[in-house]
Amino acid sequence: MSKKYSVAVVGATGAVGREMLKTLEKRNFPVGSLKLLASARSVGKTFMFKGDEYFVEELTENSFAGVEIALFSAGGNISKKFAPLAVKAGAVVVDNTSAFRMDSEVPLVVPEVNPEDIFNHKGIIANPNCSTIQMVHALKPLHNYGRIRRVVVSTYQAVSGAGLKAVEELLEESQAVLNNKSYERKIFPHQIAFNALPRIPQSGGIEDGGYTNEELKMVNETKKILHDDSIEVTATCVRIPVVRSHSESVNVETEKHITVDMARKLLSETPNIVVVDCLEKEEYPLAATASDRDETFVGRIREDKTVKYGLNLWIVSDNLLKGAALNSVQIAEVLISKK
Amino acid sequence: MSKKYSVAVVGATGAVGREMLKTLEKRNFPVGSLKLLASARSVGKTFMFKGDEYFVEELTENSFAGVEIALFSAGGNISKKFAPLAVKAGAVVVDNTSAFRMDSEVPLVVPEVNPEDIFNHKGIIANPNCSTIQMVHALKPLHNYGRIRRVVVSTYQAVSGAGLKAVEELLEESQAVLNNKSYERKIFPHQIAFNALPRIPQSGGIEDGGYTNEELKMVNETKKILHDDSIEVTATCVRIPVVRSHSESVNVETEKHITVDMARKLLSETPNIVVVDCLEKEEYPLAATASDRDETFVGRIREDKTVKYGLNLWIVSDNLLKGAALNSVQIAEVLISKK
Q1: Interchain proximity B198–A251, CB inside 8 Å
Q2: Closest Cβ opposite residue B190 in set A233, A288, A314
Q3: Distance (Å, rounded) from C-alpha B224 to C-alpha A173?
Q4: Residue B232 Cα, gap to closest chain A Cα (Å)
Q5: Could A198 and B285 be called an inter-chain contact, meaning their C-beta atoms sit closer than 8 Å?
Q6: Would you say the C-alpha torsion B318, B320, B322, B323 has a positive or negative sign?
Q7: With bands split at pLDDT 50, 70 and 90, how would you rate the model's confidence at A2?
């Protein structure tokens, strides 16, 4: 009988935690025992996993005894405090927060891009930011072939990236706007319904030069994942009234000429990328149809002749799956494949 | 007594036509007599203008007798057929369609940018595409100061650009999605509610290289308005679930260094531009607050250090006002100012 693992999900009640459970089940991850951990106020909630009911337990310093794999998605501060404790207890942590991503001792991994980095871990492996994952997933084959020099990206990000309460706020506020009623916001500083907010996260995280930390994550994480500090990235991150799946308009300059046909071929040959690219048939990646799907969808592939060698791309993927839960579980899968 | 003009509005019942009437009234344009022209099926509809009721008349070849200024916004084919007839009858046409924009005999004008071109008209003056107007409005002072070499723009465009029926579809479909009901679309090829469609217009208009004609309008009209064929523009145009006001993420490369402070100063000194740019106070341009406003709003101004001299900007304006009706009326105002 093949080995099964003792798995803990930290932040099991959140938008990403719920998807982690579904993903573990759907991909038939070899779960021997399962612990659902969250804050005290979620204790007693139950979730189904493979036909069994699991109770949420309170996350404490002693939660990790016997745990082999811990998937964290409960915010950076929780990871900073509890991930080292989980490692000390013998677990390998796959962390979906930004807590350790830029730590030089921590691999930052998209399994289709840099799976080999997983085995350099010292207990913690970081899952990149959602908007970065889908972008580097699509950029990797283009970089391998034509060496990317510069990326200008503008995002169209879904509210689920800000959590379940943000989804609730979008839906309730949309209803209020449609009924011409007022609405008291709790999550976003401005109306998100029927609007576009050029500001992620919705509060805090302002960095030098007026960039948000979401924007700088795309810059710095891309360099780290692709192991190439010479790739220049400039980003503008925008929240739009979409529940799920991020879209990205990505302009790429390369060292070598990549034709549209070659780009399509390179992307089509990349695992878990689907090229959807026929304007005549109204085929292009869409947030509405990418949701609940595992793949990264790429379309609107056009040569950009305003630079020597350039491409424009439209990249869409489910921010809760490839952008978070799925990518974390994929990391765990690679990890156990060599055990 | 100052001169008053005989004005015709062609396409008076459309999204832009209605705003033209409101704008003529609000800006106290010297209207002596007013003709509201539309297709046969709108005949009998009435609109109020300065307290008087006006009946919509059918647009025919004989509609323009005595008309001095004709504002057209009823689609390119209507303009192609009827604008020359209006000119023949003695009117000056301000055309809000794409019919004549790239005609070398027709000035293409944003009054804050190239007002002098108005006086070179041979009967027709073209109003640029909505997404182009707000962009060049903001780019002009930067170009004057630092000479723009290249622009990478991604748009977040409102559905009202596709007409009143598209607005209806967004609102009805949003309601259907919120109620988990199905909805039969008539305008957009895919769901627009809670989605992002990288495709404008929503059908037709596919050009060489996989670009849409909305995207190429931004390329070609920018060069024409700024009188500079050497400015390179590459665009990705996207419809998002917003009723009114387009947002644009614009990356600019210049020949000369423009600091953020200098960019703010140059933009602030430009007529009808408002700089809204303080992340700490959650101040940035927003579609929801730009709607029904005359100005172009610019914020998220950041230096882009991935090129020698670069800037990122977030530009928002009401697509029906500065992007269409207001710009047309402003053109007419400049026109009569020298009569």
Answers
A1: no
A2: A288
A3: 42
A4: 5
A5: yes
A6: positive
A7: confident
Q: What is the DSSP letter of B42?
A: G
Non-local (6+) Cβ contacts of B6 within 8 A are B32, B33, B35, B66, B67, B68, B69
Q: Determine what percent of chain A is predicted with pLDDT higher than 90.
A: 97
Question: Cα–Cα distances in Å, from B76 out to A171, B79, B82, B100, B122?
Answer: 38, 5, 10, 8, 18
Residue type at A226 in one-letter notation: L
The answer to whether A130 is a known catalytic residue is yes
**Confidence (pLDDT) at A291:** 96
Quote the pLDDT of residue B339: 57
Q: Of A248, A226, A228, give the one whose Cα is nearest residue A140.
A: A226
Q: Which residue among the candidates A130, A137, A143, A237 is catalytic per the annotation?
A: A130
Q: Do B286 and A154 touch (CB under 8 A)?
A: no
Measured distance CA(A158)–CA(A240) in Å, rounded = 6
- The predicted-structure confidence for A49-97, as pLDDT tens digits, reads as follows 999 999 999 999 999 999 999 999 999 999 999 999 999 999 999 999 9
Query: Which residue reads 């200008």 in tokens?
Result: A152
CB pairs under 8 A between A and B: 165
Q: What are phi and psi of B189, to 5 degrees?
A: -70, -20
Interface test with B, best of A300, A308, A309, A311 (most B CBs within 10 A): A300
Among residues B130, B137, B143, B237, which one is catalytic? Answer: B130
* Cβ separation A156–B152 shorter than 8 A: no
d(CA A270, CA B57): 59
Which residues in chain B touch residue A189, judged by CB atoms under 8 angstroms apart? Answer: 282
Tens digits of residue pLDDT in A230-258: 999 999 999 999 999 999 999 999 999 99
Q: Per residue in B155-173, pLDDT tens?
A: 999 999 999 999 999 999 9
Domains of chain A by start residue, with CATH: 5-128+324-337 (3.40.50.720), 132-319 (3.30.360.10)
**Selected residues 74-113 of chain B with any CB under 8 Å from a CB in chain A:** none
Give catalytic status of residue A246 as yes or no.
yes
Q: Mind telling me how many Å the CA of A213 is from chain B's nearest CA?
A: 12
Q: How far apart are CA A329 and CA A322, in angstroms?
A: 10
| A198–B260 C-beta distance less than 8 A | no
**For the segment B285-336, what is each residue's pLDDT rounded down to a tens digit?**
999 999 999 999 999 999 999 999 999 999 999 999 999 999 999 999 999 9
Q: Is the pLDDT of residue A162 over 80?
A: yes
d(CA A294, CA A198): 27
Mean pLDDT across the stretch B82-109? 98
Q: Which of A227, A237, A246, A278 is catalytic?
A: A246
Q: Of the candidates A313, A151, A152, which has an alpha carbon nearest to the alpha carbon of residue A247?
A: A313
pLDDT, mean over chain B = 97
Mutate which: B194, B232, B258, B315, vs A, most A CBs within 10 A:
B194
